[in-house]
Design a protein that fits this description.
The protein is mostly beta strands. It contains no helices and 16 strands. The strands form five sheets. Strands 6, 7, 11, 14 and 16 form a five-stranded antiparallel sheet that branches. Strands 8-15-12-13 form a four-stranded antiparallel sheet, with no helix packed on it. It has a three-stranded antiparallel sheet with strand order 3-4-5, with no helix packed on it. A hairpin with a 5-residue loop joins strand 3 (140-142) and strand 4 (148-153). 17% of the residues are buried.
């Protein structure tokens, strides 16, 4: 049923009483709830300036107001309807196989602020993995912690996968292996047992000279990098540990060597802070030159 229609309706009106007819409404006739309505011309519904808790056009099985002003409101609040808005398409033309069930179209107007978003999954729920309701595959939930979840299997609460949020790395961007640090071309030289060193991974460097050849090759905002770490010109035995710049102590080993004059390499992934600095720790009883290449990053 139609809940309300703003202040006016241009080109059409919702008439009362609602008279059932055996045929659809023709152009210019009233829009009839409970009957099939069709026309050859478009109908524009206009309610003037929307106010909080209002929609220009609202359709619901029971009256309902929410705190989002909108052009169209679809509410499933009673016991007869389970979905607010459904978009479905099976259209076909000679050039396009199918249309779109739902289109979010950004309108950019010169001199005016751009839309805040095209699709808004409102974060009102807790982590759905602790929910007590039944869920089905295909559901999206944005929780109050800013995490976006996708349901992959039916159940109570179902099985969920976190697809975005503060605790995810983002999309992986593979790149050609890029040299970002080589201690052989630095004033500090080899790293020694007990030392720690801050290393920038922001710029690409020439493998023959260590000079910067591409500023910002690893862009601002990356959350993690996939790397290859190598040591050479080793003495004694030892290990290196690569961590974000804010880490204060060794908690793991990224690479180990066991004898002098050894060349060893290892690949892994490490979280990146906003400054694109990595802290490299050296342990054991030896020293080594080390080289760091980046092969991809998450953003």
């Amino acid at each position: 049923m139609l809940q309300r229609l703003g202040a006016t309706a241009a080109g059409a009106a919702i008439a009362a009483p609602l008279i059932a007819r055996p045929v659809a409404a023709a152009d210019g006739d009233a829009l009839v709830a409970g009957a099939q309505n069709s026309a050859t011309e478009a109908t524009l519904l206009f309610g003037g300036t929307t106010q909080p808790n209002t929609s220009v056009l609202s359709v619901a099985d029971e009256p309902k107001e929410i705190d989002i002003e909108a052009a169209i409101g679809g509410f499933a609040t009673g016991s007869d309807v389970y979905n607010g808005v459904v978009g479905h398409t099976e259209t076909s033309t000679t050039s396009v196989e199918s249309g779109h069930a739902l289109v979010a179209y950004p309108q950019t107007v010169p001199g005016k602020q751009a839309p805040r978003s095209n699709i808004w999954v409102r974060p009102l729920l807790d982590d759905p993995r602790s929910d007590t309701k039944e869920h089905t595959p295909g559901e999206l939930v944005a929780d109050t912690n800013g995490e976006l979840w996708y349901c992959v299997d039916r159940g109570t609460p179902g099985e969920w996968r976190r697809i975005s949020g503060f605790r995810t790395a983002g999309a992986f961007v593979p790149i050609a292996p890029t040299r970002v640090y080589d201690s052989r071309f630095t004033a500090e030289g080899p790293i020694r047992s007990g030392d720690q060193r801050l290393v920038s991974i922001a710029d690409a460097r020439d493998v023959r000279t260590g000079t910067v050849i591409d500023v910002g090759a690893i862009p601002v905002g990356v959350t993690a990098v996939a790397y290859n770490l190598a040591v050479t010109n080793t003495t004694g035995s030892g290990f290196l540990f690569i961590a974000p710049s804010g880490v204060a102590e060794v908690t793991a080993a990224s690479l180990n060597w066991g004898v002098a004059d050894e060349s060893v390499n290892n690949g892994s992934t490490v979280k990146v802070d906003g400054d694109r600095l990595q802290r490299v720790f050296c342990g054991g009883n030896g020293s080594a030159d080390f080289i760091l290449d980046i092969v991809g990053y998450y953003e």
